[in-house]
Every structure is written in structure tokens, then in C-alpha cells.
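User: Please predict the structure of the protein below. I'd like the answer in C-alpha cell form so I can feed it into my own downstream comparison script.

Assistant: Understood. Taking the following sequence of 250 residues as input:
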Amino acid sequence: MAWLILNRPASRNSLSEELLAELIDALASIGRDASIRAVVIAAEAPAFCSGHDLRELTARRTDPDGGRSFFARICELSSTMMMSVVQLPQPVIACVQGAASAAGCQLVASCDLAVAAADATFATPGVDIGLFCTSPMVALSRNVAPKHAMEMLLTGDAMAAADARRIGLVNRVVPAGEERAEAMRLARRISSKSATAIRFGKRAFHTQLAMGLADAYEHASRVMVENLLDADAKEGIGAFLAKRPPQWSD
């Protein structure tokens, strides 16, 4: 298991250019390490992540192009980082305490699973500062029903952890201070499964989401055939029929 800890507490763990680049590099390294079976993304208090670093963005308005090139770079880096989470072979669990706002909420939505402290909050408050959360919208709208997503995007209101769980943005809510232990329990549970099967499944899950129904079934069937031919499936099915614990190849 690997932990990625956002550690810019003075700026509420905002996603600066440097932090985005570091996360992209760290995720790439983790993706190449077959010994890592699950990843937890957490943060130092007081917030999980407040979104992009607005001070950094504002400072670039004095650039000759008014900041356009830098804004485009930040958006590209952010999208690359979010896609790195989605495309990582290992499952990624968000471990949320405090506020997850704007791109911070996007990060939670991009993770495969999310555990939240009971006092955590979730928001896409760009409308409050004249900046619609269009990039966070992409991940959010793929996690929750459209009307829930639009309410968050149009109002900017903070949502309590219990409500985030109700609409499907969060899997588990635990008492404040217990979120890391719960995330670790969940990661260990996942790590006990066949890593090969998990890799097959995570990749297929995200691929079929972008497809129509018939294409999704065709793709899922092809993946299942390949999975059935894998040594871990042979071992797992054999162990189930023999009523013994499986011994995974990895």
C-alpha cells in the first residue's frame, strides 16, 4: 500500500503547479511498482484540498498574455493528474478530512473510493468567485446524478459528509480522526484480492463508462475472457470449488 499525503497545510493543500507535477510523478512511479496494491491519498490538516492555488494564479495576471499560458498549463497539469489517478492500475482511495473544495472535490471524485471524516465537507464553489468549476464538473458528473452535480455546481454550497455519502460521492463516513484507519482497513481489504483481477477490473470499469450499452457489454465480455484465462482466475475458481484459501500469483 502507498500513501500520498498532500502537505501544504498553510495554503489548505491547494494544488500549486509544483504540487501537481509532484503528484503526477509520484503516481507514475506507483503505477510501475507491482508490489503496491492500493493507494490512499490523504492530507495534512486543516483541509483535504482547497482546489487550485488562487494566489499563484492571480500572480500570473501580470504576465504579458494576462496569464493565459500559465492558466492553460495549470489546467493541463490538473487534468493529467486526475487522469493519472483514474488510469493508475491500482485502486485509489481518497481519505478526506476538512474541506474538499473545487479541484479538491474533483480529486475525491476522481478516486475509485472515498472515506470521509464526519465533519468533512465537499463543494464546488467556483460560482462564488465568478469562476464556474468546469474541470471539477467532469469528475463530479461521472460520480453523482446530474441534478446533484448541477446543484453543487450552481450554488457552490458546501455539502456535509453524510450527504456526500447519500449521493454517492463518498463510500464511508467515520468519526473525525478515524478516517485514516478506515482508509487503511479498506486498502488492506482490497490488497487481499488478486492484483491481476483488480487491474483487469479497474481498467475495464473506466473504459466501459465511455461506451454505449452494447459496446460496453462487448468490451466487458472480451475482458472477462482474458481474465478467465489468467492464472489467478484458474487458481481462485479452483480454490473456491475446493473450499480452500486462494494463493495468488502476485
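That's the full C-alpha cell string. The CA atoms of residues 47 and 98 lie 4 Å apart.
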